[in-house]
Amino acid sequence: IKVTIIDREGVEHVLDAPTDMNMNIMELCKAYELPVKGECGGMAMCATCQCYLESDTPLAEQSDAELDMLDQAFYVKPNSRLGCQIPISEEIDGIVLRLAPEAE
Ligand code: FES
């Protein structure tokens, strides 16, 4: 599937994402060496993988852990998501995500 990531300089990266490797968006960004830290390793505990959903891709409901983390994060918008909580699957083909600014 295709995943578009807009980096913090506004550059669009259209990435090929495998659906059979049990990966999430945070891991995909790291695999392509985009500047996503993913400090907690995908546990919804750091928000360094925060991004904004810019396509109308239907995503699964956010977990309580994700909502709690976003409650404490910086630069949160209504369309904020944690990249590590978005599994790569056929359903998200064509998704467009913009990386949130890095919190100091
Ligand atoms: Fe830490 Fe996603 S990698 S919240």
Short description:
Helix content is 15%, strand content 21%. It has helices at 25-31, 64-72; strands at 2-6, 12-16, 50-53, 80-82, 95-99.
Written account of the structure:
By secondary structure, the chain is an alpha+beta fold. It has one domain (2-99): Beta-grasp domain (Ubiquitin-like (UB roll)). Helix content is 15%, strand content 21%. The chain has two helices and five strands, in the order ββαβαββ. The chain has helices at 25-31, 64-72, and strands spanning 2-6, 12-16, 50-53, 80-82, 95-99. The protein has a five-stranded mixed beta sheet with strand order 2-1-5-3-4, covered by helices on one side. The chain is globular and about 30 Å long. The chain binds FE2/S2 (inorganic) cluster. FE2/S2 (inorganic) cluster is lined by residues 26, 38-40, 42, 44-49, 69, 82-84.
Describe the structure using short key phrases.
104 residues, alpha+beta, Ubiquitin-like (UB roll), five-stranded mixed beta sheet, 15% helix, binds FE2/S2 (inorganic) cluster, metal-binding, 2Fe-2S_ferredoxin-like_sf, 2Fe-2S iron-sulfur cluster binding domain-containing protein
Q: Would you list the SSEs in sequence order as H and E?
A: EEHEHEE
Which CATH first-tier class would you pick? Alpha Beta
Mean pLDDT: 97
What structural category do the secondary elements indicate?
alpha+beta
What is the fourth-level CATH superfamily?
A: Beta-grasp domain
Radius of gyration: 12 Å
For the record, the CATH architecture stands as: Roll
Report the biggest beta sheet as strand number plus sense, adding barrel if it closes: 5 strands, mixed
Provide the low-confidence segments as ranges.
Answer: none
Number of domains: 1
Cα(first) to Cα(last) distance is: 33 Å
CATH topology: Ubiquitin-like (UB roll)
Helix content: 10-25%
Instruction: Identify the overall geometry.
Output: globular
Roughly what fraction of the amino acids lie in strands? Answer: 15-25%
Number of helices: 2
Bound compounds, please?
FE2/S2 (inorganic) cluster
The neighbouring-strand order within the major sheet is 2-1-5-3-4
